[in-house]
């Protein structure tokens, strides 16, 4: 192991695009979409469109900073540089915590999915095997990681495309199960209590679920330090991925609600299984299990990568333990991978000890963390613009769209989501946990980080009398 190595720029445009797809398309689409549909009915399509636009603005704001200054740690670094060290510290650690929580949930889900085929094998064996496998992949080389994530994402994307095409076939060519009395068609979007059956309140209530489904796309910024050509690959990935994710989500849910009455989706198992069964595919449950296993592995893989690179970047700035700075000869921050694997192992034990309802409340912090990170990205970009001269702004290679109105809209949207989460009882615990988390981070910053930074500044300001021998 070497501490003097640097991160290797082994990720190309293909890797980065599918890394973001793999991180953002997962459980939120395969299962979470049914919850959003129940809340808002067909009007959930509007929620996905509005949220998708806001998140695209977030990605453009991140892209403006990442192309200007591609570094490890990305948005935590930008928050530290343009807002202040405390902002960077809270943003970075909140993102790491989000990745850990999501990874814990996905690791648990993986064990359950494998039980579908091997019910007699203890769940911990599958979980341990997966953690060891992904740990090894993340330790080899970033290019190996990128290739694995590419192929895992291909499986998920192919399944979604197959479902969309199959659904369109059901809608327009009348292929449907004989026992089904529902006629597939666009009319199903409004004939069951209207397009907005629960009114504006239902539409607003589903926004937090919808926003969480897009969580993970910000990992594009994390790849900046290992991208082969950041000025080319990052703009291409940012411009392509948000639009594709928006199309995947909107098209998939549009097809779902056109085939089935919206109030029946998810009531008889997964919507994906329902569509495949209506196409006459008897092994629908097996196909879905392969897809969700792939989704879980892909998500855990990207979570380990994202959290590890964030910790590495923060360690370089003195905001995380210095041990996370250590790199292998291949340029991989190996200690962060080891720690993440250890945390996941502890999490497996906790899943058996903590009651399920309590664990779900804790997991809801991921929604708060996602919105908080996006908000800090937007505020960092605004702060950066204020520090640049007119000439420097004109020279930006990848400026944010619609300045200043688009970022203002996105900032207002994120604040609105946080307010709505506090308003609705189901999501209110996430706000309580999130605020507590931020307060603890502020205390930790005051106790451990700020004194070290102050002492470092004092040491740098002490004049050194050096005698030079002639």
TrEMBL record:
Q: Does the keyword Metal-binding apply?
A: no
What Gene3D superfamilies does the record tag this protein with? Amino acid/polyamine transporter I
The UniProt record lists the keyword Transport? yes
Q: Cite the Pfam families for this sequence.
A: AA_permease
Q: What is this protein called?
A: Amino acid permease
Membrane topology category: Multi-pass membrane protein
Sorted alphabetically, which InterPro entries does this protein's record hold? AA-permease/SLC12A_dom (IPR004841), Amino_acid_permease_CS (IPR004840)
């Amino acid at each position: 192991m070497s501490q003097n190595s640097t991160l290797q720029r082994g990720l190309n445009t293909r890797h980065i695009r599918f890394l973001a797809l793999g991180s953002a398309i997962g459980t939120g689409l395969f299962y979470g979409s049914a919850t959003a549909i129940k809340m808002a009915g067909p009007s959930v399509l509007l929620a996905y469109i509005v949220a998708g636009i806001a998140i695209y603005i977030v990605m453009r704001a991140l892209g403006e900073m990442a192309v200007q200054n591609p570094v490890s740690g990305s948005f935590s670094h930008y928050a530290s540089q343009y807002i202040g060290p405390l902002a960077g510290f809270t943003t970075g650690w909140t993102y790491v915590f989000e990745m850990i929580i999501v990874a814990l949930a996905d690791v648990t889900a993986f064990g359950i999915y494998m039980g579908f085929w091997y019910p007699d094998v203890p769940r911990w064996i599958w979980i341990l095997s997966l953690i060891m496998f992904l740990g090894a992949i993340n330790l080899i080389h970033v290019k190996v990681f990128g290739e694995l994530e590419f192929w895992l994402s291909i499986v998920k994307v192919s399944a979604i495309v197959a479902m969309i095409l199959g659904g369109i076939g059901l809608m327009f060519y009348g292929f449907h199960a004989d026992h089904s009395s529902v006629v597939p068609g666009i009319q199903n979007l409004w004939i069951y209590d209207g397009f907005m059956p629960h009114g504006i309140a239902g539409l607003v209530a589903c926004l937090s679920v919808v926003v969480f489904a897009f969580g993970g796309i910000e990992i594009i910024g994390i790849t900046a330090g290992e991208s082969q050509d950041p000025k080319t690959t990052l703009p291409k990935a940012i411009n392509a991925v948000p639009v594709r994710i928006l199309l995947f989500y909107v098209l998939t849910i549009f097809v779902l609600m056109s085939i089935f009455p919206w109030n029946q989706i998810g009531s008889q198992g997964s919507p994906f299984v329902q569509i495949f069964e209506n196409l006459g595919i008897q092994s629908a449950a097996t196909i879905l299990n392969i897809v969700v296993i792939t989704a879980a592995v892909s998500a855990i893989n990207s979570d380990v990568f994202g959290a590890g690179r964030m910790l590495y970047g923060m360690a370089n700035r003195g905001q995380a333990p210095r041990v996370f700075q250590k790199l292998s000869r291949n340029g991989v921050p190996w200690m962060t991978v080891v720690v993440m694997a250890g945390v996941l192992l502890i999490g497996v034990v906790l899943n058996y000890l903590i009651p399920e309802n309590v664990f779900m409340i804790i997991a809801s912090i991921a929604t708060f963390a996602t919105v908080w990170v996006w908000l800090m990205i937007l505020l960092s970009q605004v702060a950066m613009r204020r520090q640049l001269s007119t000439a420097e702004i004109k020279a930006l290679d990848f400026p944010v769209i619609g300045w200043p109105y688009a970022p203002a809209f996105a900032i207002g949207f994120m604040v609105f989501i946080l307010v709505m989460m506090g308003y609705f009882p189901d999501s209110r615990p996430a706000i309580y946990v999130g605020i507590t988390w931020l307060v603890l981070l502020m205390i930790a910053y005051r106790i451990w980080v700020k004194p070290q930074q102050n002492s470092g500044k004092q040491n740098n300001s002490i004049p050194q009398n050096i005698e030079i021998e002639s």
